[in-house]
Amino acid sequence: RAGPEGHVGLVSYPRSGNSMVRGLLERLTGVLTGSDTRPDFTLSRSLIDYGMEGEGICDASVEIVKTHYPERLGHQAFPVARALVLVRNPFDAIDSYFNMALTNTHNVSLDESNYEVFAEEWRALVAHEIRIWARFYTWWFTQDVPVLALRYEDLLCHPEDMLRRIISFLRDVPYDAVEEAAPELWHRAQDILGIDSRHIGPYQPRSGGIGKSLRHYS
């Protein structure tokens, strides 16, 4: 359940790996994560079909709630006491957003020819979204709440360190003492480390990877 001060927000610019992190957090804590997205939207329904049972829930029954605010408004406001701020490099995040916008899916990749067919739209999207990406993170890192920055790339490349940081932040325990201070979570973290990152989230991710989108930029 949410604490008396409010929820832990899982906040990110879209396509920064929040579904993967929600899957990780649900495995780690053993409880569902929520979101402020309307559950009847097509992409939300697909997440529910993939097993994200907390989609659309942001009341006191859930502790951690995904949001893209202020990039977009959720269907219901909720108080955030602390925030996990998920950051992915904007080249990959914006490219993944372009794929999502054109396919209306989370995990289908465009054929390379679409970058030529929709070249004008692609250039306009990049110019527009990079400003939104920058304003989004400037907003969150200047709010008067405790935040933990989670780099998507570090979650893939340095998962043990990042899991330790997450546990330390969620349970207010020292980074070097999570084994003793939060043994149940640390035990679950060890199980998570044995899972391929592609299978941690609710669906098989598209093949974007780290830095592979650079070929689509001039």
Automatic annotation (TrEMBL):
InterPro entries in the cross-refs: P-loop_NTPase, Sialate-O-sulfotransferase
Q: Which Pfam families match?
A: Sulfotransfer_3
Family, as annotated:
Belongs to the WSCD family.
What protein is this chain from? Sulfotransferase domain-containing protein
Q: Which organism is it from?
A: Phaeomonas parva
